[in-house]
Design a protein that fits this description.
Helix content: under 10%
Number of strands: 8
Strand order of the largest sheet: 6-5-7-8
Structural class: mainly beta
Radius of gyration: 16 Å
Number of domains: 2
Strand content: 25-35%
Length: 111
């Protein structure tokens, strides 16, 4: 069954988005973004403004990335990459890094 083509537009600027996922490389990290629908220019701007630093390796974490969450000695949330080398939280605390803030943070009860 053929699906009708739907015109996609950037949620940030309204320009046409040609393909999904939106793909770009920022500071050596590739990102493929399905949601939200944004153009490459807006994705690059979001990466420049809202990337954060991984608390374990010091490299950047791009917006809309899944992250692990650590608590520092003062109760502040710190984010880390969801990789075996950075994720020291055992997968029990995770969320998504959004535009400069932690989104959809979950704590999974460990047995």
């Amino acid at each position: 069954m053929n699906r009708p083509e739907v015109a996609l537009s950037c949620e940030d600027c309204g320009k046409s988005v040609e393909t999904l996922p939106t793909f770009t490389s920022f500071r050596g990290q590739e990102t493929y973004l399905f949601h939200p629908i944004v153009c490459v220019g807006c994705l690059m701007e979001t990466c420049q403004q809202h990337s954060t630093e991984c608390a374990n390796c010091g490299e950047i974490i791009l917006p809309y990335s899944q992250v692990g969450v650590l608590k520092d000695n003062h109760g502040k949330n710190l984010v880390v990459h969801m990789t075996t080398s950075c994720l020291t939280v055992g997968g029990a605390f995770h969320g998504f890094w959004g535009k400069g803030q932690l989104l959809n943070f979950m704590e999974i009860e460990a047995c």
